[in-house]
Design a protein that fits this description.
nine-stranded mixed beta sheet, 8 helices, alpha/beta
């Protein structure tokens, strides 16, 4: 297998208060990515200024607000690497995230993607009352999330882009299609990412889990119907 050249895609919408921590966690990786692409989905805060202060280390692209799916897809179109990693602008990575996952894909050529454990945490700016309103798992969990995945570009192309009509749970929808397409993946038993819980995403996890169950059931039903045909 040729050397892994990783393109890191960070969609951002009014995440200026978190973006630097996300970018810094990529720059601190012990396996250096080839490029970092920040796709600004029409932010009105300091997102642009923060991304641009990194100079040539970060490719910054602005688009009119179109949703996370479109932003991620734009990043994929621009990516020059043979592996893709996604990082939500309000999350950040463990320093060995890429090295762990690249090692697995490089030594197990039958695999197309690698996930890992994610530790969730309440964002520091939350008041005590707000923290009590947000449920936070006490232990790391299997991270079937964009910030926890490394995938070969060839596999992503085989499965297809994120559905631009999905404004929420777009990764859940994509992962259901990936499962149906028999994506060959592995879950690392080690921590790769940290997921921030804040007022802007406090309901996302429950909705994502519900939609994942529904979408995976629909995928199973489609496969059964195809078998009977």
């Amino acid at each position: 297998m040729q050397k892994a050249i990783v393109s890191v895609i960070i969609p951002a919408y009014n995440n200026g208060c978190y973006l630097a921590e996300a970018i810094d966690s990529v720059l601190a990786q012990d396996y250096q990515p080839f490029e970092i692409i920040v796709v600004d989905d029409g932010s009105t805060d300091q997102t642009a200024a923060i991304a641009q202060r990194y100079g040539p280390a970060v490719t910054y692209v602005f688009q009119e607000n179109s949703g996370t799916s479109v932003a991620r897809n734009r990043g994929v179109e621009l990516a020059k690497g043979n592996m893709l990693a996604f990082l939500d602008a309000d999350d950040y990575w463990a320093s060995d995230k890429l090295s762990q996952q690249v090692a697995v894909l490089s030594s197990h050529l039958e695999l197309e993607a690698v996930f890992g454990l994610v530790e969730q945490f309440r964002s520091a700016e939350l008041t005590e009352i707000e923290q009590r309103q947000i449920s936070c798992p006490p232990s790391p969990m299997a991270g079937y999330l964009p910030s926890a995945m490394l995938i070969t570009k060839a596999a992503f192309s085989r499965i297809g882009l994120f559905d631009p009509s999905k404004r929420m749970s777009e990764f859940v929808d994509w992962y259901a299609h990936a499962t149906e397409a028999k994506l060959r993946s592995h879950m690392l038993p080690t921590l790769v990412a940290y997921r921030r819980l804040h007022l802007g995403n406090k309901g996302r996890k429950t909705k994502s889990n519900t939609q994942l169950t529904r979408l995976l059931k629909a995928s199973i039903d489609r496969r059964r119907a195809a078998t009977r045909a």
